[in-house]
Design a protein that fits this description.
There is one protein chain. Helix content is about 60%, strand content about 10%. It is α/β, with parallel strands linked by helices and about 230 residues long. α5 packs antiparallel against α6 and α6 runs antiparallel to α7. The longest helix is centred in the last third of the chain and has 36 residues. It is elongated, with a radius of gyration of 19 Å. InterPro entries: Bact_response_regulator, CheY-like_superfamily, Sig_transdc_resp-reg_receiver.
Length: about 230
């Protein structure tokens, strides 16, 4: 059974957290609440998250400051952040969100379907990333002598490589489809930033997989980075 991904919801208003849970419940993932930036940072110390939905306007540590702390930590700096805001202060405010490390910046009220679709892509990417790392680690053990030898070992290695490639191709196809759909609906900076983030992640995973192919001369494969 594939382990559910965790999605961190950060908002100081309980009614907003309830609304987000209602929207994202259909994804059937683990939704974790945080009512402040400080509470979010504590959650990030112990758990891994596929994506963070972060409210901008919060008392004390606001969304921008919270994001800055997240991006400074090596453990969490690659987790995608989607900013949610009820106030649109114009391009400068939006730019500040991207400068803080967000992959998207959404103004309330937002289309529930669009938000759910965007979050689902990051969840799928996270899940595939985890599966790829686990299977690449297994393959590394086999290549280092921990698996079967001879023809049987070669067949197992080839089978694992084929499965890894198929899994990665599936998420590449899904990401491409969503990027195309969002591109048809809007050409704003949010779409560009989201697409660029996905492309970087997928390129890294594909490069790691290519390094596992026989004859690359790379020795033991290098696993993609966490997140």
């Amino acid at each position: 059974m594939v382990q559910k991904a965790k999605i961190l919801l950060v908002d100081d208003r309980p009614e907003n957290l309830l609304a987000l849970e209602a929207i994202l419940s259909a994804l059937d993932q683990t939704l974790v609440r945080a009512s402040s930036g400080e509470e979010a940072l504590k959650a990030l110390l112990t758990d891994d998250f596929a994506v963070i939905l972060l409210d901008v306007q919060m008392p004390g540590m606001d969304g921008f400051e919270t994001a800055a702390h997240i991006k400074r930590r090596e453990r969490t700096r690659d987790i995608p952040i989607i900013f949610l805001t009820a106030i649109n202060h114009g391009p400068h405010h939006t730019f500040r969100g991207y400068a803080a490390g967000a992959v998207d910046y959404i103004s309330k009220p937002f289309d529930p379907w669009v938000l759910r679709a965007k979050v689902s892509v990051f969840v799928e990417l996270y899940t595939k990333n985890c599966q790829l790392r686990e299977q690449a680690a297994l393959l590394r053990l086999q290549l280092e002598g921990g698996g079967s030898s001879g023809v049987e070992g070669s067949k197992e290695t080839a089978g694992l490589l084929a499965e890894l490639s198929a899994r990665l191709a599936a998420v590449e196809e899904q990401a491409e489809a969503l990027t195309k759909q969002l591109g048809e609906e809007s050409a704003d900076a949010a779409v560009v930033a989201t697409a660029a983030h996905l492309e970087r992640k997928l390129t890294g995973l594909r490069r790691a997989l290519d390094a596992l192919e026989p004859g690359t001369g790379g020795g033991a494969p290098v696993l993609p980075a966490q997140g």
